[in-house]
């Protein structure tokens, strides 16, 4: 027994000594790695490009993900409730909740509207011009392809796709198939009457949501008059009360504001490559400006269908036909919208050689994708944007059709 206890004590001492030496080595190694990272600095982060892939389409029975976490939304609602209980009658100070415009975003609204016009003009030149690039769309689904020949990738989920082995039936496409601008109801008074009722749906004009966002941010259009206030409104127990008298001056106070920024003169003679580069630049400018405006002006989308509404609240028109609409009496399940809901980029397969053979179904794992507007402009001669290089898989060399079985 004595010998056994001595041996166990010796073994425990040896284990402690080995573990202490191991911890010392680990600590020295971690400190050396930390010193190397400090010396290297942030140089790697500047040169490394983040990998971007095409977002997976959600199932029809699934709701769209919330841009803001639900817990954060609950926390904000509780803070607003405490603020109303603390001061039932208060003057709203922050724009645009108080009915006033955000001064810094008025010029951005005009820039987004001008970029939208340049984008549509450029697409008309590239799709319907003399040296147009063919756009194909499937007759039975929403698939779009840019090129002379439609691809042979079996991804059709439309009507009777099983009898065609999921092959697409290609027809001629247009500008609406490249980029989508959903329509929404126009709000004459975004603070006083933020919601459109179901019985008012035929008397309220509809316009593209990107245009409505610019109008609410300060853009003046004669076809869509908007009430502009000069004094902030009050909130009495959660209800908006406006003590400003209703006169015609309030309606037309911003009617002629900065009218010179509405349209710019376009160059008369431009090549196809120049039009493609300018169109792509306008698309990026429109998205960037829309993101800035959406940080202040609310945009809502249905969680199950593509309906969009610009304003403090979503409308009450009962026209949702998506999943579970019977439980909502046809009303939409409104949630916060993203830039993808406001400007829908239709993702298409990237074609490296437009004059080559069509894309094969066996090699689809080696092909990349890109928004249709980016693919169209790149085929027309524009430079490939840096943020879409990884998505288009330009660093991947696809094998030959008879070699794909040999690739690991």
UniProtKB/TrEMBL annotation:
Location of the region described as Disordered in the Swiss-Prot/TrEMBL record: 35-62
Record lineage: Eukaryota, Viridiplantae, Streptophyta, Embryophyta, Tracheophyta
GO molecular function: RNA binding
Database matches in InterPro entries: APO_dom
APO domain span: 137-223, 301-386
Domain of life where this protein originates: Eukaryota
Compositionally skewed regions (Acidic residues) per UniProt: 36-51
Name recorded for this polypeptide: APO domain-containing protein
Organism expressing this protein natively: Asparagus officinalis
């Amino acid at each position: 027994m004595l010998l056994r206890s001595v041996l166990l004590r010796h073994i425990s001492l040896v284990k402690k000594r080995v573990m202490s030496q191991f911890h010392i080595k680990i600590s020295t190694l971690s400190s050396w790695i930390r010193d190397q990272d400090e010396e290297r600095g942030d140089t790697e982060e500047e040169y490394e490009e983040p990998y971007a892939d095409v977002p997976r389409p959600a199932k029809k029975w699934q709701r769209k993900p919330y841009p803001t976490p639900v817990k954060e939304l609950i926390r904000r609602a509780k803070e607003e409730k405490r603020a109303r209980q603390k001061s039932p009658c208060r003057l709203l100070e922050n724009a645009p909740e108080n009915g006033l415009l955000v001064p810094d975003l008025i010029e951005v609204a005009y820039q987004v509207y001008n970029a939208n016009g340049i984008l549509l003009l450029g697409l008309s030149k590239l799709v319907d011009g003399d040296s147009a690039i063919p756009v194909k769309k499937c007759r039975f689904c929403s698939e779009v392809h840019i090129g002379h020949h439609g691809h042979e990738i079996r991804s059709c989920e439309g009507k009777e796709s099983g009898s065609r082995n999921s092959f697409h039936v290609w027809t001629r496409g247009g500008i609406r198939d490249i980029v989508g601008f959903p329509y929404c109801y126009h709000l004459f008074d975004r603070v006083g009457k933020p919601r459109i009722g179901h019985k008012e749906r035929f008397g309220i004009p509809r316009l593209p949501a990107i245009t409505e966002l610019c109008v609410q941010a300060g853009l003046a259009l004669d076809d869509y008059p908007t009430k502009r206030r000069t004094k902030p409104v009050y909130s009495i127990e959660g209800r908006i009360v406006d003590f400003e008298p209703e006169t015609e001056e309030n309606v037309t106070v911003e009617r002629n504001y900065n009218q010179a920024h509405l349209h710019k003169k376009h160059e008369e003679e431009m090549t196809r490559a120049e039009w493609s580069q300018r169109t792509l630049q306008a698309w990026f400018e429109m998205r960037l400006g829309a993101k800035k405006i959406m940080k202040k002006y609310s945009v809502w989308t249905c969680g199950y269908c593509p309906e969009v509404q610009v304003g403090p609240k979503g409308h009450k028109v009962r026209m949702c036909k998506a999943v579970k609409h019977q439980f909502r009496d046809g009303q939409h399940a409104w949630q916060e919208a993203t830039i993808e809901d406001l400007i829908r980029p239709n993702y298409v397969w990237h074609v490296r050689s437009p004059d080559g053979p069509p894309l094969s179904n066996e090699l689809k794992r080696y092909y990349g994708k890109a928004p249709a507007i980016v693919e169209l402009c790149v085929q027309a001669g524009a430079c490939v944007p840096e943020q879409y290089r990884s998505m288009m898989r330009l660093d991947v060399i696809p094998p030959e059709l008879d070699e794909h079985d040999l690739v690991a």
